[in-house]
Structure formats: C-alpha cells, structure tokens
Amino acid sequence: MLLKASLMIVIGALIGWITNYFAIKMLFRPLKEINILGFRVQGLIPKRKMEMAESIADTIQEELISMKDITANIGDIELGEEIDLIVDRIVEDKLEKQVLAKIPMASLFITDSMILKIKGHIKDAIDENKDEFFTVLIQKMEDSVDMKNIIIEKIENFELDELEKMVYRIANNELKHIEVIGAILGAVIGGIQFAISLYI
Fold first, then answer.
1. Contacts by 129-138 with C-beta closer than 8 Å and gap 24+?
2. Which of 47, 127, 155, 157 could bridge across to 42 with cysteines, CB 3.0–4.6 Å?
3. Distance between first and last Cα of the chain
4. Cα separation of 94 and 92, whole Å?
5. If the chain, 200 residues long, is cut into consecutive pieces of 10 residues, what is the mean pLDDT of each piece?
6. Cβ(115)–Cβ(96) under 8 Å?
7. Residue 164: closest CA among 21, 26, 20, 19
8. Which first-to-last residue range defines the signal peptide (predicted)?
C-alpha cells in the first residue's frame, strides 16, 4: 500500500512537472508551424506575434507613453548653448569661409565686430521665434509620427530566438517555480487519487 501510494504521488508529480515544462516550452516552440497527425502545432508567441505586437503597441501608446507625451516636453528643452554653437558654425562656414574666401575685398566691410553683430541678430531672432518653431515642430510630429506602427515594426523585426532567450533570462526563476508548482500539484493529486482508491 505504501509503495502504491508512493508510486501514485511520484507519477502525479512527474506528470505535473512535465505538463508545465512543455506548456512553458510551447510558448515559443515550435517556432514554425508543423503538422503532427493532422494537427497544426506552433508556439503561442510565434503564432500570435502580429496580434501581440498590436496589443503591446496599443497598451504602450494608450497606457504608458504616446507621441503627445513626448512632444509635451519638447517646449521645455533648453537649447540656448546648442543654438549658439550652430549659429556660430553656420556664420563661420558660410560667411567667413565661403563668402570672404571667394570675395577677399568683402573683408574690408565685414569686420569681426560686424560678424559678432550678425551672429547676435540671428540668435535673437531664433530665440524670439522658438516658441512658434516648437509649436510647428510638435504639430508636425504628432501628425506624421505613428508611434503604434513604429512599435509594431520593432516587435515584428525582433528575432523570436532572441526574444525567447531574453524571456528565459529575465524570468528563469519564475518559470522554474511554475514547473515546481506543477510537480507539487501533481503529487497532491496523486495522493488524493490514492486516498480515493482506498474507498472504491
């Protein structure tokens, strides 16, 4: 009787562990659809990759971050130093290097102080109109950039082998726990079956 009880508990534990082990594996495997005795079998994630990509994209866009969330912070970005550097570079490249190099006589009229004034006027003009610029930029981004399609494309292009490795790397302990829980539940069920068999 003890041997029978032990066997039923061990077999139940094995069945529970093996069932959960294959259930976890079948999240990804087989990657490509195969035919087994007329049944088409494919891993859940490879089979529903497109649906999952759309669902993830919708969740990210609606619950986590959208293009409006991104553009809402653009106007707060301070670009003073960067604008100064860009204006300096443009004036130096276009005016000092190209115009003065081609027309040396122009250096008699375009002095260093005049170049500084030109830079200053350009910087002031940019600074005075940056709000309008950011408004146009933000509107254009919101109209043109489709966050959902970007996310879907990224997920679709993600190699399933790499995704599988990443999931196992991140959730390896949790997946092992699921296997162990399956073994424990199987053992409990085996014990219950043995107890029931005593009264049948």
1. 130/79, 131/75, 134/74, 134/75, 135/75, 137/74, 138/71, 138/74, 138/75
2. 47
3. 14
4. 6
5. 87 94 88 82 84 85 76 69 79 69 67 78 80 79 81 83 84 90 93 84
6. yes
7. 26
8. none
Rounded CA separation 125/105 (Å): 28
Locus of tokens 């653009």: 74
Residues in the chain: 200
Determine the Cα–Cα distance for residues 38 and 46; give it in Å rounded to an integer. Answer: 20
Angle between helices 112-144 and 80-90 (to 10 degrees): 120
Burial 162-193 (b: 16+ CB within 10 A, else e): eebeeeeeeeeeebeeebeebbebbbebbbee
Q: 47: which 2 tokens?
A: 């089979």
Q: Tokens representing 30?
A: 């087989």
Taking the CA atoms of the chain, what radius of gyration do you get in angstroms? 33
Contact (CB, 8 A) for 129 and 90:
no
The domain segmentation of the chain, as residue ranges, is 2-198
pLDDT digit string, tens, across residues 144-190: 878 888 888 888 888 888 888 888 888 888 989 999 999 999 999 99
Q: What pTM was computed for the model?
A: 0.56
- Taking the CB of residue 1, how many other CB atoms lie within 10 A of it? 8
Give me the DSSP letters along 126-158.
HHHHHHHHHHHHHHHHHHH--HHHHHHHHHHTS
Cβ atoms within 10 Å of 13's Cβ, excluding its own: 21
Asked whether the beta carbons of 191 and 6 are under 8 A apart, the reply is: no
